[in-house]
Amino acid sequence: MAMSTAERAVPRAAWTLVVxxxxxxxxxxxMADGAGRHREALALxxxxxxxxxxxxxxxxxxxxxxxxxPLPAAELAALxxxxxxxxxxxxxxxxxxxxxxxxxxxxxxxxxxxxxxDLPALRPAELARALDAxxxxxxxxxxxxxxxGTTLYTARPGVPFAPxxxxxxxxxxxxxxxxxxxxxxxxxxxRDVDTPADLRAALALGVGxxxxxxxxxxxxxxIRH
Length: 225
Ligand SMILES: Nc1nc2c(ncn2[C@@H]2O[C@H](COP(=O)(O)OP(=O)(O)OP(=O)(O)O)[C@@H](O)[C@H]2O)c(=O)[nH]1
Ligand SMILES: C=C(OP(=O)(O)O)C(=O)O
Fold this sequence. Notes:
By secondary structure, this protein is α/β, with parallel strands linked by helices. 41% of the residues lie in helices and 16% in strands. It has a seven-stranded mixed sheet with strand order 3-2-1-4-6-5-7, with helices on both faces. Helix 3 (39-55) packs antiparallel against helix 10. It binds guanosine-5'-triphosphate and phosphoenolpyruvate. The site of phosphoenolpyruvate has 9 residues, from loops.
């Protein structure tokens, strides 16, 4: 059967995604109460499940991880990510712009997206749905589950990549004129994990194997209501 114009308009592997990963010693501080001595392991596991899902998505040509921590650098490179150091060392948005610069050198024909490393329930098919919707706008973003922050920000080829993560980044991305993507069937793309309650919500959706293994080590109140 012939493909429709709309289907042909969305090339496979059209995106390079940049995933920022803080030095683990400073990561996931809002999980400290619940995760205790497993906080760093949880941050690493969540990033691993996020990157593995992104690499399994057929719309994704490459994943660029920006990190200065050798442990996630090694583990995420082993999954197939390209790792670049956080040379700007000036916070999240400069790290993302740096990674996107490398992405555009390596894959100039792709759009570039910034994907949160905090999406342990991420499903490749749901990421594909979000990226296909993102193809329809110069800049687009997916708000987090609370609709306050952002989990994915995208810029099509040739469009300046100017992420505005941090705090109320949904409002900041809207103010840039980026298109908000709130389509059905992308819950796993929106389910970021910052707090114990977020982790419970992600576990209810179903998390990847790395996060499931660490969650099994956490005290009951963290993983159950
Ligand atoms: N490479 C890099 N990644 C960062 C930086 N700041 C934040 N990130 C990453 O961006 C995402 C969102 O970061 P935050 O919400 O600020 O930090 P967090 O570690 O998730 O959580 P908290 O410590 O509880 O604030 C996480 O995946 C972080 O690892 C940075 O300066 N450089
Ligand atoms: C930095 C952000 O996320 P977080 O909720 O992880 O702080 C953001 O959404 O812009």
